[in-house]
Amino acid sequence: MTRIATDILVAGGGIAGMTAALGMASMGHRVICIDPAPPEIPKPDLRSTAFFMPSVRLLQRIGLWDALADHATPLRIMRIADAGGEAYKIRELADFDATEIGQDAFGYNIANHRIRQVLLDSIAAHPNADLIAPDSVQTLLPRTHESLISLTSGAQISASLVIAADGRNSRVREALNIPIATWQFGQKALVFNVVTEIAHDNISTEIHRTGGPFTLVPLPDADGQNMCAIVWMATGPEIERLHKLEDDAFAQEVNLRSCQILGQLRPVGPRVVWPIIAQRAERLSGPRTVLIAEAAHVIPPIGAQGLNMSLSDLSTLMDLIEGAEDIGAPEITDRYHRRRWTEMAVRVQGVITLNRAAMAKSQTLRDLRVAALRSLYGIAPVRRRVMKAGMGV
To answer: pTM to 2 decimals?
Structure first.
């Protein structure tokens, strides 16, 4: 049996997992990242990721940002629009402007396939990082000074620290018998791209009516055309209905739901459906192991919180192990759990609350929602506090 010794094993080669591998490698640790998917660039899956400024600073610390910056679209304003009246019409508009809290932008939006390309290239070029794929964790045996990890390929790896970034169905979390809390909303998300009549002007817009938000995320122009990615959340049956519509009928539905906020929208490319849940691990560490990203927390795509929470996990872990003699010691993993769990739990619950408000069906609840938005936006100190909290500051 092949046995490989390393300092850190990262289970999961998604954006969070590969970023974690490169973060640890940048600190001088030997890192192996394991992922069940082949190390290739899939066709664009239409999803994109917003990196808020704390995440951008982490990527700069790791040495990744320069390679990503050319593909980044700044998010200057986060706009919330309420269209919860009887007609499909914007009745309240709140622009949260980054300049009000001393920032040029809240962050930057980048297509996921661009991010993956940069991460794969960076791991291939880094002397301290290796990617083994396709392969996955089969068993995990923590011991006093190391963990022994058996892979489905039959190989065995010994590591001082295991970072579980292997998703919402984490094998590592299951091996440690860490329970999870899960919330179901009966929702799905439909993701697709549109050409917009009016330029997005680096504004990310969430339109709230019922069933969930309709979010227009700025993308770089393509062949001189204004482009946005759309994440449309609604009940599962409604999303399935929309997904099956012919192109012309679908375009009519899109333009009705968008309230023409960017003029006429023309959907382009395929439509992709994603399930919506929330999930929270009841502990973020185990013997010689920590949980990050979706192994630790899953939230609905509201306010671009998901990956930014994951990179906060990584930033905390990097701070804790810097200069440590034993990076997987209980005092490190326990401290990581204590530092991250409360903030993570509060943020998960906050997004759940926002999502339930966005789902409101009754006119009374929708009227209460718009009144809350007016109050929130109308008090400058509260507005600035909300903006900073949303960025993770």
So the answer is: 0.90
